[in-house]
Amino acid sequence: MKMFESIKEQIRDIKKIVFVTGAGMSQESGVPTFRGKDGLWRNYDAMKLATIDAFYDNPKLVWEWYNERRRNIFAARPNLGHKAVAELEKYTEVVVLTQNIDGLHQKAGSSEVLELHGSIVKIKCSVCNFKDEIMVEFSEIPPLCKCGNILRPDVVWFGESLPQDVWQKAMIFASQCDLMVIVGTSLVVSPANTLPIYAKQNNAILVEVNPEDTEMSSEMNLVIRNTSAVALPEFVSMFKEN
Ligand code: BJW
Ligand code: ZN
Predict the structure, then answer these.
(1) Which of 46, 101, 134, 218 is most buried (CB neighbours < 10 A)?
(2) Among candidates 114, 76, 77, which has minimal Cα distance to 94?
């Protein structure tokens, strides 16, 4: 099993690695992905729940979805893939640009993680500037801010901009890396799916880890058709040999 043989020789010159991760990264930790059969919750399409319109139509329903996901995520443990990414910091500079809100990269020990789509532990007011972290569940949903308006999960829904400071940094890291590893994302959601383009402009090596084809598979230098918990430990083992 030599998945990464074709880039082995190039590995010794790599100084900066950026991981771009999506829901598939946490699939082996028991966190469902968005698309495909996994992306259904009580027969609702996750893609339709992740919108500001869905929230204003039915804030209680959307809060229930996040509460249930938060319970599942709190019970989840980082898998061998998350751990491999964290371990790689011993050998080279590593930045993780994640679309996930589950915090599992940080739990695994990664020190530079940019959360592009927010975090399941954070909340904000839908009107004023109030922000907080949620530790215990609200007894009544939707919870209200001191200002009287509805509190919402501090995540990025369709039609909303990414946190600008985070996105600016993500673009810079992407355009300066030598190797980008794209793991467990269908790359259908913009602007996160433009990050590989910034890396390519810098002549970075692009590696995709995904059991299935994605929008950008044909742009990759290497495609590993395997899961993250299987492929990433082997990827990291190459750095140990060097
Ligand atoms: C494994 C595996 C294993 C399985 N190992 N792999 C038309 C109208 C309006 C907007 C738009 C429009 N056209 C385009 C847009 C922009 C829109 C967009 O991209 N839409 C597309 C769907 C068409 N984007 C936005 O709106 C973004 N904002 C924006 O562009 O601002 C400017 C703007 C403003 C106003 C108007 C228009 C533009 C914001 C996007 C926010 C996305 N938010 C969500 C929810 C976050 C909070 C939460 O988690 O609840 O982010 S949606 C959801 O998708 C979530 C994810 O982070 C994101 C990406 O999904 P991901 O991670 O790729 O998961 P999947 O399920 O798609 O794929 C999993 C992959 O893993 C698969 O490939 C599997 O094969 C693989 N896999 N097991 C490895 N074990
Ligand atoms: Zn408020």
Answers:
(1) 101
(2) 114
Give catalytic status of residue 117 as yes or no.
yes
Q: Is the CB of residue 162 less than 8 Å from the CB of residue 191? A: yes
**CA 150 to ligand 2 center in whole angstroms:** 7
pTM, rounded to two decimals: 0.97
- In this structure, what DSSP letter does residue 144 have? B
Which-ligand-closest: CA of 149? Answer: 2
Phi and psi at 19, nearest 5°, equal: -100, 135
Which residues lie with the beta carbon below 6 Å from any ligand 1 atom? 22-24, 27-28, 33-35, 39, 50, 99, 101, 117, 155-161, 183-186, 188-191, 209-212, 214, 227-228
Give backbone dihedrals phi and psi of 110, rounded to 5 degrees, phi first.
-65, 135
Compute, in angstroms, the gap from residue 240 CA to the centroid of ligand 2: 50
Q: Give the pLDDT of residue 241.
A: 80
C-alpha angle 51/29/90, rounded to 5°?
105
- 27-63 b/e with 16+ CB inside 10 Å = b? bbbebbbbeeeebeeeeeebeebbeeebbeeebebbb
82, 117, 152, 200: which is the annotated catalytic residue?
A: 117
Q: What is the pLDDT of residue 38?
A: 83
Site to probe by mutation for ligand 1, drawn from 3, 25, 29, 33 as the one with most ligand atoms within 8 Å of Cβ, is 33
State the pLDDT at residue 1: 57
Cβ atoms of residues 26 and 72 within 8 Å: no
Helical axes 80-87 vs 228-241, angle rounded to 10° = 30
Q: Which ligand is nearest to the CA of 123?
A: 2
